Amino acid sequence: MNLGIIGRPGCGKSTLFHALGGPPRPKVPQTPTDEKIVASIEVPDPRLEWLRDLEQPKKYTPARIEFIDLPGLPPKDVRGKAELLASMRDCDAFVMVARAFENDNYPYEGETAANPVADVKSLRDEFLLEDYAVLSKRVEKLRDGLKKPSKNREKEEHERHFLEKILADVEEHGMSVRDAVDKHWHPSVDASLLRSYAFLSQKPIVLVINIAEGRAGDAAVTEASKLNPTSLIINAEIEEEIASLEAADRTAFLKDFGISEPASARLIRASYAALGLRAFFTSGPDEVRAWTIKGGDDAVAAAGRIHSDLARGFIRAEVTAFDALKSAGTWREAKAKNLMRLEGKEYRVEDGDILNIRFAV
Q: Global pTM?
């Protein structure tokens, strides 16, 4: 899974990216044609650390998540902007950064102060216009195609009918593709076909309001944070400084600024929530490892994340809830208390499950 960090030039998204552990960009004005930078970030999980201490394994493998520092999206049409918007379709989700601090190098046109509410709304509008263009083009093509004989007429007619309803809500009500799809969704819709469009306004968003020191309570910050279901208020500059410290010095620095935990941990947790991700674990003397699946995935899907052979030859999954094991203290006590159970193919894996897959191929 990957999340593109997006925002207007000067919003501090690259500073946030560096605070997450990604390499810093040169401090020069960005353009849409700048290279995107990718960082694979280790997902912190105290549960996995506890299992490591219990097992003392030969190998320890946390889950990882990718963040992509994309060039700033300018408000006006400039060279490379269309290509930048198109490249955003490759992201699974977005971290949208809205600026709530003044920056003389990036003044707002017609504004006397930073306006995070306007940032969020204008970025959403850009996505909607881009999706509207894709929808219009596809619907027009389907309408023209249905005037001719076709082997796939029924499928194309169904697709046209569904996309026309989405297009109408986008055009007439300014509804995001995500909301319009939820409104008109039916099991007969080809989900894989819908995913192929990679609509920008259908992707999950984690909103980050990037503030200056002492501005967390500003009315504009509070209003902006209500514009998205998953929102964080972060001072990226301070978080970048914290990330640059030695681990031993971070705790005191966090305490001085009244920060409970680094932004990286909060943002990764929010990203998991926005994407509907869950973690399960495999644990033993050879390796303790975290795996990532989508919420609602069954035991076979989880087995397939480990290895395709485990899914193909799946028999049963031995399941132990992490909290139950931790409460017992040891595997021996967990077994004595019958905390392990066998589950079949249709079992929906819960966040924090420890799995041992029984299989035969």
A: 0.89
